Structures are given as C-alpha cells and as structure tokens.
Hints:
Elements: E1 2-7, H1 13-24, E2 27-30, H2 31-41, H3 44-55, H4 61-71, E3 81-84, H5 90-103, E4 109-114, H6 117-126, E5 127-130, E6 138-140, E7 159-160, H7 167-181, H8 183-190, E8 194-198, H9 202-216
Parallel strand pairs: 1-3, 1-4, 2-3, 4-8
Antiparallel strand pairs: 5-6, 5-7
Amino acid sequence: MRIILLGAPGAGKGTIAKFLCDFDGSIQISTGDILRAAVKAGTELGKKAKGYMDRGDLVPDSLIMNIMEARLQEPDCEKGFILDGFPRTIKQAEELKDLLKKLDIKLDLVVNLEVSRDVILDRLTTRRTCSNSECQEIYNIKSKPPTADGKCKKCGSPVIQRDDETEEAIVYRLKTYNEKTAPLIGFYETEGMLENFASTNSQETVEGIKKSLKSKV
Ligand code: AP5
C-alpha cells in the first residue's frame, strides 16, 4: 500500500502504521522517528532539528523535503510505504505531489485519523516509547503498558517519555497542528484522496483502512 496518515499529535498515526506494516510488509516512514534518531546520533540534521522539536514547532520544510526525496527512492519503498507525520504543511504536500509524479509513484489513499482533544491530551501525557531507535515500539501506561520494570516487551530496552512530551510542548504542538497541518485535510479532499477514520479503537481503524484499500483495487 502507499498511503499518508494524517492526524493531530497523539491521534495514533504511529500505532496504526505499525499494524498496517505487519499486514502487508509495507514500510513505515515516520519523519518524527527519523528526526529523533538524528538528534540522538548528534548529526548535523539532528542539531538543526532539536530546538524546533523540543518546543513543539515544525522543522523547516526544506530539511524535511531533502530527507524525504532521498528516503522515497530507497529500495525498501518498492514494497509500499506508510507516511507517518509527513506531509505536515501545504508546501510539503505540494512538493510531495511533484516528487511522486517525478518518481512515477501513485498514492492509494490519504487517511485522516480523528480523535477528540481531551483524548489526545490524555494519550500524550501517558505515552511511552521504546528508547531503541531500531524498535521505537509505542506504549501507553493506561492502554498498553511496558513491562513492570519499564522495559520494552519486544526488545527489552528501557521505555522512555519523549523530550517533546512536556505539557507546554504538547499544547504548542496542538496549536501548530491546527494552524499548519489541519489545512491538509481540505487539500487532500480536493484531490479526492481523503477518507476519515475514527481513531478510538485501533483494530477497527485498521480494518476500516484495509476495507477501503480493497475497494480501490
Ligand atoms: P512526530 O513524531 O510525527 O509526532 P506527532 O505528529 O506529534 O505524533 P505523535 O508521534 O506524537 O503521535 P501519533 O499520532 O503517532 O500517536 P501514537 O500512535 O504515538 O513529530 C515530532 C516532531 O518532529 C514534530 O513536533 C516536529 O517538530 C518534527 N516533525 C516531524 N515530521 C515533520 C514534518 N513533516 N515537518 C516538519 N516537522 C516535522 O499514539 C499516542 C498514544 O496513544 C500512545 O501511547 C498509544 O499507545 C495511544 N493510542 C493510540 N491509539 C490508541 C487507541 N485506539 N486506544 C487507546 N490508546 C491509543
């Protein structure tokens, strides 16, 4: 499959992407994960991105487009891809459209994950993430806890809270989402690519997406 996952911070993009990858071997491309790995490794990209990320702001479009132009041409993308957290601005969406045209890649669907603000705030303050950059399994201390001693059930690494999970940064991320990313819903509606899915029960959301993809084949 070749899909874009849209949704506010905490809507469940990462969670749903992982289920969909298990389904047909498509790969998850999360710009957030790529940037966090760069910050951890102390690369030039990481140094440039860290300040924006910690305060809940978007990293400049040019940095993201450079990453994605290269990433979408890697061989593993041939199996299909799930874009998680990209595009995030109208400029990124327009540039992605041109890039896909240039690479002769057709998108199947743009999924918009819908969830209320109260649920988002609750989820983000209770989310935990595996610290192993190769794993990055997502946990939630209420709905999907790690082991009793705070380790990842998949790889055994410590499970941590992200640097942008302070209350101040969460509120700023939601404001940034409303101003810069929510307009993409209208953009992809106009393109005739968008479908909305409630993101309150992951299994039901995944089944809905699979059904919609089947109807397009
Ligand atoms: P990014 O990592 O993309 O963060 P985000 O969009 O804020 O999304 P999250 O990862 O916080 O949430 P999610 O929707 O994946 O939810 P999850 O599945 O974890 O980006 C981080 C930063 O990087 C940005 O702020 C920006 O600075 C930068 N960046 C990234 N991409 C960029 C771009 N394209 N342009 C510019 N800057 C960019 O779920 C959340 C929690 O809820 C988890 O605990 C999970 O277990 C739980 N949960 C999920 N679904 C359910 C359910 N159905 N029931 C119960 N619990 C659930």
